[in-house]
Design goal:
Elements (H helix, E strand, L loop, with lengths): L3 H6 L28 H5 L25 E3 L2 E3 L18 E3 L7 E2 L11 E3 L6 E2 L12 E3 L18 E3 L21 E3 L22 E3 L18 E3 L7 E2 L12 E3 L7 E2 L12 E3 L20 E3 L27 E3 L24 E2 L6
Parallel strand pairs: 2-3, 3-5, 4-6, 5-7, 7-8, 8-9, 9-10, 10-11, 11-13, 12-14, 13-15, 15-16, 16-17, 17-18
Antiparallel strand pairs: 1-2
């Protein structure tokens, strides 16, 4: 069960910036969460949203039995609830219903709560087509770890972030995200999605910044993902190769996660379509050599290539010829757990790396 201060801090996340790596080992850390002061959390500071002026400044005394209510946060997690509680104040901003026994979201479960964020990790297999209609200003919907077999219909047009991972979804139909012009982030990993499950045009109209489809059944990079993506995470799938056209439309990517797949081949020229790439995850695959094209990525700073089958590292595999060509030096290159005779690697190979501690070698076992 998440502590109340953590839930309260989620109220500020809609304006939070993406994680920016500053050091090689930062990938092991969770993103930091901004904290709200009491005035911001209670809603008394309404300068940023004129629609909030009509809200009562003090949180209502209404609180469902067994729940904890404070600063417009209603925490009802781990209570074995089978339905959404009825005694929820209309000025509630965040409702935590995690780890209960709820199996269905009904039409009027969220009636009269237009400013709500929702966290729901239960056993939900059915959602009424109008269950989210009252949530006219819903920005974040966390409905992960349930039993859903389809993406809920009629999602609010105000939605900015959707987390629907760890369900049983096999299909992303065309039009399911229609009208969601504000959508910025979708997390849909942990579903049994195959490439054939994405209908042509499934992501039409979306201007996503972040998309994760990890721990699915993908054998290749899905087609026609949003061109606006800054981050794409497809780790823990069954992808075997990266072909030339796979990355053609994603010129704005600065982070690409392809770790824990079965990638043996990356076609020459594939990475040239990613001029703004800063971080590339190719660890835990079956690559036999360093991918071609890395020296041409002028902004690339972090490359994860550990746990592959790489046997040789050439002097020009990472750095371009000449000085002043690369705009950002590497601050992390991982090559450990590869059969590379690292004592044979020329020092000049890493001439465009910030310092020697940024290079990870060794620890290979047959």
């Amino acid at each position: 069960m998440w502590p109340l201060w953590f839930l309260t801090s989620l109220l500020a996340l809609s304006q939070a910036l993406p994680f920016e790596q500053k050091g090689f080992w930062d990938f092991t850390l969770d993103d930091g969460l901004p904290m709200l002061n009491d005035e911001e959390a209670s809603g008394t500071d309404t300068s940023g949203d004129p629609d909030m002026d009509s809200l009562t400044p003090n949180f209502s005394n209404m609180c469902p039995f067994g729940c904890h209510c404070h600063l417009r946060v209603v925490q009802c997690s781990d209570l074995d609830l089978i339905t959404v509680p009825k005694e929820i104040s209309p000025d509630t901003t965040l409702l935590d219903l995690q780890n209960n026994e709820i199996t269905e979201l009904r039409r009027d479960d969220f009636k009269g709560m237009p400013h709500l964020y929702v966290l729901v990790n239960n056993k939900i297999s059915k959602i009424h087509e109008k269950a989210f209609s009252p949530l006219r200003k819903l920005q974040k919907l966390y409905i992960s770890k349930n039993h859903l077999v389809e993406i809920p219909p009629n999602l609010p047009s105000s939605l900015v972030e959707l987390r629907i991972h760890d369900n049983r979804i096999r299909k992303v139909p065309k039009g399911v995200f229609s009208g969601l012009r504000n959508m910025n982030c979708i997390e849909m990993g942990g579903n049994p999605l195959e490439n054939s499950g994405f209908e042509p045009g499934a992501f039409d109209g979306l201007k996503l910044n972040y998309l994760r489809i990890s721990e699915a059944k993908l054998t290749g990079i899905p087609k026609d993902l949003p061109e606006t993506l800054n981050e794409l995470h497809l780790d823990h799938n069954q992808i075997q190769a990266i072909e030339l056209e796979d990355l053609l439309r994603y010129s704005k990517l600065y982070r690409l996660g392809l770790g824990h797949n079965q990638i043996r081949m990356i076609e020459n020229g594939s990475l040239s379509f990613l001029p703004t790439l800063r971080e590339l995850h190719l660890d835990n695959n079956k690559l036999s050599k360093v991918p071609a094209g890395l020296p041409d990525l002028k902004l690339l700073q972090v490359v994860y290539l550990h746990s592959n089958n790489i046997t040789k590292v050439g002097v020009n595999d990472f750095c371009p010829m000449g000085f002043g060509v690369k705009r950002a030096y590497y601050n992390g290159i991982s090559l450990f757990n590869n059969p590379v005779p690292y004592w044979e690697v020329q020092p000049a190979t890493f001439r465009c790396v910030t310092d020697r501690l940024a290079i990870q070698f060794g620890n290979y076992k047959k």
